[in-house]
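tool_call predict_complex ligand=fe (ii) ion
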Amino acid sequence: MKYTGLTDVHCHVLPNMDDGSRSVEESIGILKTETAQGITRVIATPHFYADRDTLQCFIARRHEAELVLRQEMTLHSDMPELFLGAEVLFFHGISNWEGLEELTLNKSGYLLLEMPFVEWTDVLLDEVEEISVKHGITPVLAHVERYLYLFNAKRVLDDLRRRSIMIQCNADFFLQRNTARTALKYLRENRIHFMGSDSHNMGRRKPNIGDATEIILAKQGSAPLERLSQMAEFLFDEQ
Ligand SMILES: [Fe+2]
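tool_result ok
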């Protein structure tokens, strides 16, 4: 069974931009795989590290990579739609930083935020919440499943919900034997707002949302996938 129409909100598909795709050919391979798996929209989310990059340099490099990829995409018919975003690593002071809007997913006001591998204290989560208070930008925490072992997951997930901080999970969460049950449980509980492949290449980290949707369809039917599709629409509303 295949579900068509999902958006990949987290993908390192831009060529030579970060530790993702190493060539435009690889990027095309990633995009073809997305289409084959029923993904109709892909948001390119290269890593942004505020301690190594300026906003201006990042935007310029991202634009260059986008141009190269779009040019090549015109030669292929089976391409998903491509949009721009970033995966922004949390840093202290982020809530006072100007420029976040520019890095949001398709300039939608939703920011894909990579959290540090430390305990998420109240102080840290307060700063994440401040991003929405000060800028009206909704933080979406990238691949939350990677951090769950660090803390009392239920308590933190409840806290995130209370603070209106959203959650993105990787398709992998549904595909690993030791996490699949938890992934399905969180999906059933409506705790997962966005799905991403976090694909970096056509090797060990190729697009895999289609594999996850097969599992979800088999276990829970299409309703949760419809919900994820509807959530993704918020990223494409007319500004
Ligand atoms: Fe990523």
